[in-house]
Specification:
The structure holds 2 protein chains of 2 kinds. In chain A, helix 4 runs antiparallel to helix 16. A two-stranded antiparallel ribbon of chain A has the order 1-2. Chain A is mainly α. Helix content of chain A is 74%, strand content 1%. By secondary structure, chain B is of the alpha/beta class. Chain B has 3 domains: 235 residues, Rossmann fold (3-Layer(aba) Sandwich), CATH 3.40.50; 174 residues, P-loop containing nucleotide triphosphate hydrolases (Rossmann fold, 3-Layer(aba) Sandwich), CATH 3.40.50; 68 residues, no CATH class. Chain B has 17 helices and 22 strands. In chain B, strands 6-7-8-3-9-10 form a 6-stranded mixed beta sheet, sandwiched between helices. In chain B, strands 16-19-20-13-21-22 form a 6-stranded mixed beta sheet, sandwiched between helices. In chain B, 51% of the residues are buried. The mean pLDDT of chain B is 86. The chains are: A mainly alpha, B alpha/beta. Chains A and B meet through helix 1, helix 2, helix 11 and helix 12 of A and helix 2, helix 6, helix 7 and helix 17 of B. Chain B: Pfam families: ABC_tran. Chain B: This is Sugar ABC transporter ATP-binding protein.
Chain lengths: 347, 501
């Protein structure tokens, strides 16, 4: 720009105390409001969970005890594990329906192959997790290489995995080593192994979300093109994302067998949509990039407590999906309103 | 002197379209090298090749004497080439600092990001290059376009590049940040880096570039030392013909009729007490530093966000609470928005659909569209605005930037509104199209249209507008006309407390 020299000392002063900042300095109240709105998608499910727990406690004694925590965590854990994988995929802006097939396949493999030898069981447990990772990686490769919708690719692999599970074990059954099914019963310091597993999962997440991969997954979900231009490999990120989802589905299957003591070729489908629901109630955006595992875990507990409530109220169990659906709608609506007003207060 | 970067006979085709043919480019360390050309000349494709985002079909590039063939952006970055794309490479849901260090974050022993080290590195980077103050912990989507542009530059610099590519980096910046960036580019070159500088603003190029390479139709047409060439020659090279003049003749066409009258107009704390009359046949410029209320003014007039005060349109009070209430045919207002890629155009839709989207009722009878009437309107607009499109069915996203902007103009003109709100309509557009748009604005004014025109390029306001209203801190600082309407006076009013306008 051809501005005359006498202007330049002026520019220096302007640059140090920018007038635009002075004009835009928000009030303390406004800062609080925007901080609250920013976290609305996590605050809302927290409030919902507390509300549900209070209702639950008013109907039954002993809700706020370690026993209840142990029980509810055990009830929620399979869903939490499945939803952890789903959370990672949703953060990347995708969706994974194949976890249904993987969970079914995992349970039937465990119920038919573990036998009674602990070493053999352990080897197969690792094998199942590896299969989960491989199937997930294959999802990632298909989605990237064929440029197909994640919804369609994982719908197809779900079907293939379910069929495979049916061939291995056509009806519910099989058996697991007795030590294996004791997993959920054992406790340490008053906390069941399920609660400890939840703690391990949280530690994993605190670590994972701060790794380069964790950031890259969120970034890709937020803006795929920008992530690519910044050096993220499109196929690498999809292999990692769907691979992790497959691994968590396999872990969910293994956990499930410790609870049921049997394999089931159809049980996986019960976790597909709830895993998405738990994540969305917990504030994960279906458009990718926003949310975290803490929200998903809260979402999974909300869904579990709704089941408890229906049981305590002694109403038909068909009320459970109805109430879950309403909670899902309220959660999505509330966070979308918060999101919009956050935008409005800014632009 | 040895060349740091040497590209010979680069070619690139997209389907049947040749983006680059025989493009040559050579530049040395320690210089600012400007790359000029109209939109569609192949500059963007060329730098995408350098950045590893696109692979060339033919030709060779050498970097510091050895062959350079990056397979992906990461490899380009490792070789020391850092691009600042016009299409920003930032991620909205990451924070400012996460964006800057994305893919090369400082890691701890357990491979997690060291937050404190990242913050320190960010502040150090900001201090070293005298960045405008931006909080590093904000999410990027909270930032304005100008701030994002600044962060994109920080991201490129965080890799200490040997070659920094700035593609239209100043087009989103206000005068203050522009000055800063020019100083930064010059400083980097003086410190031994190569800065490849792409801009449509010749003034900037003159100020900092040592050498200039000109592209036209995908090929290199000329390369000069900046000192040894005049603007006229450069423009002729870019256009392939002599351009008579960039700015059209300005005849006074305004009448006494007030088209748009504002009294006590304001938007929360960001815009206050605006009294302004836009007359029939007038081009009224709006100037101001980035973030002093221009955007709020344009958005509020178009019904985006709330406002207070009174608005008279063609002599009658009008309430505008949504774009729908602004777009009311002949007595309405139409807007050319700031971010044409995201707000103005549906890139995946055809030129025809984009043009007629807001005016479907103009060719609809009893709820059924009449394709013949639609076709006639579309053909007329394409002809009037000289939109370079294969057919009306070509996707808007495949047009050059200048032609995309023409489509938005067409869309706006089809609404028949005679009050036009133009927010930086020439941003990132080539010289040839700029000239056409200025001519169009003056022609429309002569036909009785009233035009409110914001530009981040002060020269445009000085040469195209009849009067210029200058905003400072959300208030009207001055209205300049005649002799007073100069870049110097605008800057004074925008930056200084003035006693009188």
């Amino acid at each position: 720009m051809s501005v005359a020299d006498p202007m330049s000392p002026l520019k220096m002063t302007v640059a140090t105390s920018s007038p635009s900042e002075l004009a835009h300095r928000p009030s303390r109240a406004a800062i609080w409001k925007s901080a609250l709105l920013d976290r609305a998608s996590l605050i809302i499910p927290c409030v919902m969970l507390i509300g549900l727990l209070l209702v639950y406690a008013s109907l039954r004694d002993g809700v706020f005890t370690l026993d209840e925590l142990n029980l509810d965590t055990a009830a929620a854990m399979t869903l939490i594990l499945a939803a952890t994988g789903q959370t990672i995929v949703l953060l990347r802006g995708g969706i994974d329906l194949s976890i249904g097939g993987m969970i079914s396949l995992g349970t039937v493999l465990a119920a038919t192959r573990f036998g009674t030898d602990p070493a053999q069981a352990a080897a197969w447990a690792f094998g199942i997790v590896a299969i989960g990772g491989l199937v997930g990686a294959l999802n990632g490769i298909l989605i990237t290489a064929l440029r197909l919708q994640p919804f369609l690719v994982t719908l197809a692999t779900w079907s293939i995995l379910s069929g495979t599970a049916m061939i291995i074990l056509p009806t519910d059954g099989g058996s697991l080593p007795s030590g294996w099914t004791m997993f959920g019963v054992s406790t340490k310091l008053g906390l069941s192994s399920s609660v400890w597993l939840l703690a391990v999962l949280l530690v994993f997440w605190i670590w994972f979300k701060r790794t380069r991969l964790g950031i890259a997954i969120r970034a890709t979900g937020s803006n795929e093109r920008s992530a690519f231009l910044s050096g993220v490999s499109p196929i690498g990120i999809n292999i990692a994302t769907y691979g992790l989802s497959g691994i968590f589905a396999a872990l969910a299957a293994l956990y499930l067998t410790t609870q049921t003591g049997a394999g089931s070729p159809t049980i996986g489908k019960d976790y597909i949509l709830p895993s998405v629901a738990a994540a969305v109630i917990g504030g994960i955006s279906l458009f990718g990039g926003r949310g975290g595992l803490v929200g998903t875990i809260i979402g999974a507990f909300i869904l579990t407590i709704i089941g408890n409530l229906v049981f305590v109220l002694e109403v038909s169990s068909y009320w459970q999906p109805i109430v879950s659906g309403i909670i899902l709608l309220v959660a999505v609506l509330a966070s979308s309103i918060a999101e919009k007003s956050a935008r409005r207060s800014l632009s | 002197m040895t060349e740091l970067l040497n590209a010979t006979a680069i070619t690139k085709r997209y389907g049947g379209i040749t983006a680059l043919s025989r493009a040559d480019f050579s530049a040395r360390a320690g210089e600012v090298h400007a790359l000029l050309g109209e939109n569609g000349a192949g500059k963007s494709t060329f730098i995408q090749i350098l950045a590893g985002a696109v692979r060339p079909d033919g030709g060779t590039v050498t970097l510091a004497g050895s062959p350079y063939r990056p397979r992906d952006p990461q490899e380009a970055q490792r070789s020391g080439i850092a691009p600042v794309f016009q299409e920003l490479s930032l991620v909205p849901d990451l924070t400012v600092e996460e964006n800057i260090w994305f893919r090369h974050e400082p890691l701890s022993a357990v491979r997690t990001v060291r937050a404190r080290a990242m913050r320190e590195a960010t502040l150090e980077l900001f201090a070293r290059h005298r960045f405008p103050s931006i909080r590093p912990d904000q999410e990027l989507r909270r930032l304005t376009l100008a701030e994002r542009q600044v962060i994109e530059i920080a991201k490129a610099l965080s890799r200490d590049p040997k070659v920094l590519i700035l593609d239209e980096a100043t087009s989103a910046l206000g005068p203050q940040e522009t000055e800063w960036l020019l100083g930064l580019a010059r400083g980097l070159a003086d410190a031994g880096s190569l800065v490849i500088y792409i801009s449509h603003r010749l003034g900037e190029v003159r100020e900092i570039a040592d050498r200039i390479t000109v592209f036209r139709n995908g090929a290199t047409v000329a390369a000069y030392d900046t000192q040894a060439v005049d603007d006229e020659t450069i423009i002729t090279d870019m256009l392939g013909r002599r351009m008579d003049r960039l700015y059209p003749e300005r005849k006074k066409t305004s009448t006494d009729t007030v088209a748009l009258g504002l009294r006590g107009f304001g938007v929360d704390h960001r815009l206050s007490d605006i009294d302004l009359d836009l007359r029939e046949g007038e081009v009224l410029g709006v100037a101001g530093m980035q973030g002093h209320g221009q955007r709020e003014l344009f958005q509020a007039l178009f019904g985006i966000g709330g406002s207070r005060g009174t608005v008279d349109v063609w002599g009658k009070p009008k309430t505008i609470r949504s774009p729908r209430q602004a777009l009311t045919g002949r007595d309405g207002l139409a807007l050319v928005p700031e971010d044409r890629r995201n707000h103005g155009l549906l890139l995946a839709k055809s030129v025809r659909e984009n043009l007629t989207l807001s005016v479907i009722q103009r060719f609809t009878r009893f709820g059924i569209t009449d394709p013949r009437r639609e076709g006639a309107l579309v053909d007329e607009m394409i002809a009037t605005l000289k939109i370079k499109t294969g057919t009306p069915e070509q996707l808007a996203g495949t047009l050059s930037g200048g032609n995309q902007q023409k489509v938005i103009f067409g869309k706006m003109l089809l609404t028949e509104a005679r009050i036009l709100l133009l927010y930086d309509p020439t941003r990132g557009i080539d010289v040839g199209t700029k000239g056409e748009i200025f001519q169009l604005m003056r022609d429309l004014a002569a036909k009785g249209y009233a035009i409110l025109f914001y530009s981040s390029d002060l020269a445009e306001l000085v040469h195209v507008a009849d009067r210029v209203a200058v905003l400072r801190n959300g208030r009207l600082a001055a209205i300049l006309e005649g002799e007073q309407n100069s870049e110097r006076q605008i800057l004074r009013a925008a930056m200084l407390e003035t006693r009188a306008a």
